[in-house]
Design brief:
The protein is an alpha+beta fold and 310 residues long. The chain folds into two domains: 215 residues, no CATH class; 91 residues, 2-Layer Sandwich (Alpha-Beta Plaits), CATH 3.30.70.120. 60% of the residues lie in helices and 9% in strands. The chain is built from eleven helices and four strands; from the N terminus they run αααααααααβαββαβ. A hairpin with a 6-residue loop joins strand 2 and strand 3. The mean pLDDT is 78.
Length: 310
């Protein structure tokens, strides 16, 4: 186990993902601290639930910082993540979840939100709808980036990942369902109008996460009909290091036998393939469509050099 940990720490992939997680969580912490905490908006998240719990205790005369409640709830959920989702996801989420509260305190130290709020207002943007949109945009981008490297912001994302893994819902749908339940808890501290705003924000958050995730994971499904299919097959296998499939077919107009080549490529690989076809002047019929998710033996290595193919 110790050797595995030392080996992991020595990889560039580990440090690259550590930087991504840290920067992503700084954005997420800023979104919570500046747009949720002052307005007491409860979007479907553990941060929102923490605001409710902190508010309930405040009504009882007990002062508990939101960041402390976030930390306590995340500790419980992290145990679930480790055993139900996987060790890698659990370990990464331990890091991201545990730094959320301290990063909120860091933003408070750097620039307290009180300095950004006009007198008599409880909103940084001056309107809860603007706070909602700013929060959703910032957090959704953060969530999508972390999900893409098999991590999360912790909290609700852990529950969403569990639902996604075992019930095979889209990650955005999972966030929306779990978040909607949390939003309803806001009736304990907020008026009906604010709860409705939170529910709408949760729904938009789910849509935004799906949108950003689809763009991060987007691949091209390419279908090519050409007499020079074998040259393209060798190029895809030897130069792009991807697999492809060959399907016999018959032309509807000419009734001649043809071969259709199909492959799933990244955007850069698709561009390299199209450049190869142009340079070699290969006559072919091509269709290409977007694929948002790929399962199976897909090589995710980022160290491929495609510049020499230009």
């Amino acid at each position: 186990m110790l050797k595995d940990i030392i080996k992991t720490l020595g990889t560039g992939k580990f440090w690259k993902e550590l930087v991504i997680m840290t920067v992503g969580m700084m954005v997420g912490a800023a979104a919570v601290y500046y747009f949720l905490v002052p307005s007491k908006l409860v979007i479907g998240s553990i941060s929102g639930l923490s605001i409710v719990i902190s508010g309930i205790f405040a009504n009882m005369g007990i002062s508990i910082k939101v960041s402390w409640v976030v930390l306590a709830i995340n500790v419980i959920l992290l145990v679930m993540a480790y055993f139900l989702v996987g060790k890698e996801f659990g370990i990464k989420t331990v890091y991201t979840a545990l730094i959320l509260g301290p990063l909120m305190d860091l933003w408070e130290l750097i620039l307290p939100y009180q300095k950004l709020i006009a007198e008599g207002s409880t909103s940084v943007m001056g309107d809860p709808w603007f706070d909602l949109l700013c929060f959703v945009l910032m957090l959704s981008m953060c969530q999508a980036i972390l999900f893409n490297i098999n991590a999360s912001t912790g909290g609700l994302d852990i529950l969403a990942k569990i639902v996604n893994k075992y019930l095979h819902f889209d990650i955005g749908t999972s966030i929306t369902v779990a978040g909607g339940l949390i939003c309803c808890s806001a009736f304990a501290i907020n008026p009906f109008r604010m709860v409705v705003i939170g529910l709408i924000g949760t729904w938009i958050n789910g849509l935004a996460v799906d949108y950003f995730s689809a763009n991060l994971n987007r691949r091209k499904r390419v279908c090519i009909i050409t007499d020079e299919y074998d040259e393209l097959r060798r190029f895809i296998i030897n130069e792009l290091h991807r697999g492809c499939s060959l399907f016999p077919m018959k032309g509807g107009y000419s009734k001649s036998d043809k071969i259709e080549l199909q492959a799933i490529l990244s955007k850069d690989e698709f561009a390299a393939l199209m450049n190869h076809i142009r340079v070699r002047n290969i006559k072919c019929f091509i269709t290409a469509g977007n694929v948002s998710e790929v399962y199976g033996a897909w090589n995710t290595a980022k160290n491929k050099k495609l510049k020499h193919l230009d």
